[in-house]
Structure formats: C-alpha cells, structure tokens
Amino acid sequence: MSPAEALAILGAGIAAGAINAVVGSGSLITFPTLLAFGFPPVVANVSNNVGLVPGNFSGAYGYRRELAGQRSRLIRLGIAAVIGGLTGAVLLLSLPASAFTLIVPALILIACVLVLIQPRMAARLAARRARAAGEDGNGGDGDHAGHADHVGPVLTGGMLLAGAYGGYFGAAQGVLVIGLLGSFLDESLQRVNAAKNVLVALVNATAAIVFILFAHVSWLAVLLIAAGSTIGGLLGAKFGRRLPPTALRLLVVVIGIIAAVKLIFF
After folding, report:
1. For 232, which DSSP code?
2. Which of 44, 98, 187, 228 could form a disulfide with 14 if both were Cys (CB 3.0 to 4.6 A apart)?
3. Among the ranges given (51-60, 151-160, 176-185), the one the predictor scored with the smallest mean pLDDT
4. How far apart are CA 186 and CA 122, in angstroms?
5. Domain boundaries, the chain
6. What pTM does this model have?
7. Is residue 72 within 8 Å of 213, Cβ to Cβ?
C-alpha cells in the first residue's frame, strides 16, 4: 500500500465515522475505497466492518447526553442487536452475497419512508399514551426513562433483522435503525439517533469479533479506518447534535436514497 493510498483510506475513515455518527451509511465511502485499491470484496467488507467499530463507539460517546434515561431500552434492544449481528456475520462467511443483498435497496427505501412519516407516527403514539395515562389516573412525570417500557416484540424483532443486515454488510444500517426506532418510540430524533449509535456499535462489534476469529482481515486497512473513524465519530457527533430535527431528518432520507441507488447500480 502506497502512502497516497493509506492517506486516502484514512480520509475515507474520517468521513465514514462522521457520517455514521450523524446518520449512517459511512460504509458506502470506505468499502468502495478499499475495492478501488484492489482489496477482494469479502476482505474489504470484513476489514471495513472491523475498522469502523471504534468510530461507532466514539459517535455513541459524543451523543452521551441524549442517551440519558435510555439504559433499560438499550439493554433490551442491545440483546437483539448482538444476536442479529452474530447472525449476519455468520451469513456473510457462509452464503453468497446475492442471497441477502437483493433486498437491501428495498429495506433502505422503506427506512427512508419511515423516517419521513416518523413525526406523524410519534404524535399519534404520544396522544394514545396520554389518553392511556389519563384513563389510569397517572400523569406523565416528564422522565425519559419512562419510555423504556415501550419496547415491544415488533420493535425487538425489527432490531434483530436490522442487526442481521448490519452484520452481513452494514451500509445504511444506521438509516434502517433510525427509521425503525423513530416509528416505534415517542422520542426526539436526536435521542433516537443517540440510541442508534449504541445499537449499531453493538452490531458491528459483534460481527467484528466473528470476522477477526474466522475471516481474513487486512490489519493495515483496519488500523487506518479505525483511526479515521474514531476522529470522524467525535466530529460527526459534535456537528449532528446541533442539527435541527427537520434538517437531520432530511439528511437521513437523502443519504438513504443515495445508498439505495448506489447499491442497486453497484
């Protein structure tokens, strides 16, 4: 690997880490970069996944304020994320890519629709819960932790599937998870994005352990992407936390559509 190639991979890692912290789809920068420099597809995918893990955690750390009160929820969904990530990683190492990636563009576009309609769905959920609280004679106390009990089997199952997708390939995983969480949780988009960062980090970390143990990893590429994504994750979180909800929502949708188009014509 030449110095120019190493610098390009490092830069791609910074960009991917920042995008992952704000939305997701950072793999659509680093993965094609590795392919362009001659890495075999599976090696590129595996090395990219392992390298982005530190950036996932640095992005989650950058959103730590928005994570307040979400511990119980994240434990429940985190278990599903880990199981899904493990499943996806095993699929990557045992099945042809065409067996899974045929449905990826459709999943991403569905996630974009979910992100767009999330405010209306959240308003309906809030109204329904307010009516239920009134019928029970219990007013809300404004504590975010109260939302943790609204993790049901559909959301958990969806997180399991999203985790499996993330463990297999991962591009636009963040868009999928944001769309999923935003449709089922009565939360602001920034808090949904914070939860997304933790769950995606768990998925990728689980898959990375499998890849390190059972797949061929290019450690130089991993180190470059890891260094870049860690920096990018912190920068992306700092920028993303300042975005108004509408701007963040539009950014999610735009990146999701670009991701779907790239995957269709890749």
Report:
1. H
2. 228
3. 176-185
4. 5
5. 3-264
6. 0.77
7. no
